[in-house]
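Q: What changes when adenosine monophosphate is included in the input?
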Amino acid sequence: MYLYNTATHHKDEFKPQNPAQVTMYCCGPTVYNYAHIGNLRTYIFEDLLARTLRLQYSLKHVMNITDVGHLVSDSDEGEDKMEVGAAREGKSAWDIAKFYEEKFWQDYDALHCSRPTVISRATQHIQEMINLVKTLEEKGYTYRTSDGIYYDTSKFARYDALVGHAHISGLQGGARVELSDEKRNPTDFALWKFSPKDKKRQMEWDSPWGVGFPGWHIECSAMAMKYLGHTLDIHCGGVDHVTIHHTNEIAQSEAATGQKYVNYWVHGEFLILRSGKMSKSGGTFVTLEVLKEKGYEPLAYRYFCLGAHYRTQLEFSYESMDSAAKSLKNLRALACQAKEQAGAKIEETEKSRTWKEKFMAAMQDDLNAPKALAITWEAVRAGDLSAAEKTDFLQFADTILALDLFKVTQEKPLPIPAQVQALLDQRKAARAAKDWAASDALRAQINQAGYEVKDTPQGQVACKK
Ligand code: AMP
Ligand code: ZN
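A: The predicted holo structure follows.
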């Protein structure tokens, strides 16, 4: 298997530390609002990775729930998003976290993303975070300001490991003007923030440094290493996390353990709107609920996401959703037809195995889901595969695609229009009379009418192009 590694800038062959168990950590949601469909695209890509890995390995997949400590700005300014959510809705921060976490899992399950092996909530791991900050303090990486304990990024030589030297020195130079008097370097970040003196926070804990709450980045390092050890095979997230969150995770973890934190950094590109970025703070906020209200089933959104490689930006539009929904229906109709024709006798043959291998090769080549989907379409239309072989292949493909391919739809495969059927009948007769020239001419006419015809041992099969 090959994966594009953000840290090396190329597709690397995936070699787990221990093939008996692959370890993977995915940054989870900040549960102060609904997830938008951009966030969900990232979880779909991570699920594709998890499903592909599971075909070959046993996988320990950890995902956190950020229910405290993610400030409105990634650079430690502004309020904690949970407290902002609580004020917005007049509920407690704890209730906000519980409510939006439940909503998150509903979306996650509806999209057939497979549940992680371990789900870890930040609020249940405060002690682990404090311990990690203590280690960093003992090793001389921290300093105190009036609002918290900070990480001194100038002490960690590999701080530019993920984003490169030019980017970090740009940050160091560019932000100098805004640098608060107390922060030593613009890239320094909070490990522990103190509660404001004049206000009681809803979520706060005692610590060796005073009452407060953890920084967002320390959360992922502490939980990832608790469950997966000092070095993880894979760490995933959206591309927005590369420059700050994951860069800071590396700095904290490697400074504390002296060991490499992650072997493969895998990042998913953004879902965008024609008008720009989808964001929770801006007005452009589409949720799965909104799609459902408009009549799309969640798996049509999954199909839409599978149509683009995870490392390319994907532009959302309702026209594309329409076409994804239609394609999914048609694929299911063909899958159901194959299964019905196959009857009880579905077993792997050399031919169906070859198609499965083609499909797997696409997924193992840096998760090329669009190619795997195209192979699925080819297989379902392949003239040389029997209905039983198609069914066998599709059952396998659906363990990765997870599109409920055999869901019985009301839709029958689209009926062939009468004039195309007439051409097909004439072609059948021409072939029976071995009039190959007429057969070819009729094929051209059928193509012109938007249909494809294939000759199979069971006779000619036509479908819409
Ligand atoms: P958050 O809940 O904001 O912490 O984000 C959850 C996940 O969604 C993270 O892995 C982000 O990198 C990712 N993400 C945020 N916005 C988008 C977007 N527009 N498209 C794809 N992924 C996104
Ligand atoms: Zn994280």
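Observations recorded in class: Residues 330 and 414 are 8 Å apart (CA to CA).
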